[in-house]
Specification:
mainly alpha, about 190 residues, 2 domains
Length: about 190
């Protein structure tokens, strides 16, 4: 008899909890659709003042390295530098529509996709770039020691271009050296 009472109590408890859960879920769903309806009727807002991301290409070592992967990433960065980029991570479409109007959602989505592409491109760009920058930095430091300078501005002031023979280029392993067409000499640059 006690077991039957416990069983009936457990059945009523589960029934009560299920109804409460269903009611809470229904209320949450109604709130969602109410917000979504309000968002869909929000007028277009001005989005020109948003914190758009600008890519400072002049600060990137673009065109310096011969790596094909880097060149491809540089093309992507160049294309992205001409587009609007926004980081809208963590903001739902409903929130975007409430803030800026439903009519701006396609443009804002595109700007956020540009941000995602920028992040992916920078990650792949940084991989090969890291190795090449370390090599180039070593060469710059070595050149600074050879010139007897301790800063980049001082190097820019005191450094002089020197013509070297093609044999020196081959034996020294220099990079970024352009052979002159008028002779067998080269210019370091």
């Amino acid at each position: 008899m006690i077991a039957l009472g416990i069983f009936i109590f457990v059945v009523f408890l589960f029934s009560y909890l299920r109804k409460r859960s269903t009611r809470e879920q229904r209320e949450a769903q109604e709130q969602f659709w109410q917000r979504e309806n309000e968002a869909n009727h929000t007028r277009r807002q001005d989005i020109s003042g948003l914190p758009y991301i600008n890519i400072p290409l002049e600060q990137f070592p673009v065109g310096i390295f011969e790596d094909d992967a880097l060149k491809e990433d540089e093309k992507k960065l160049l294309a992205l530098s001409e587009k609007k980029i926004l980081n809208l991570g963590g903001i739902t479409n409903t929130e975007l529509k409430l803030l800026y109007g439903a009519a701006n959602l396609p443009a804002l989505s595109e700007y956020d996709q540009n941000f995602t592409l920028l992040c992916r491109t920078l990650v792949t760009y940084a991989g090969p770039l890291k190795d090449n920058v370390a090599k180039s930095l070593y060469k710059v430091k070595s050149t600074m020691c050879n010139c007897g300078v301790v800063s980049i501005p001082e190097l820019q002031e005191k450094a002089r271009l020197t013509l070297v023979s093609s044999t020196s280029i081959v034996e020294g392993g220099y990079h970024d050296v352009v052979l002159k067409t008028h002779g067998a000499s080269a210019q370091n640059g």
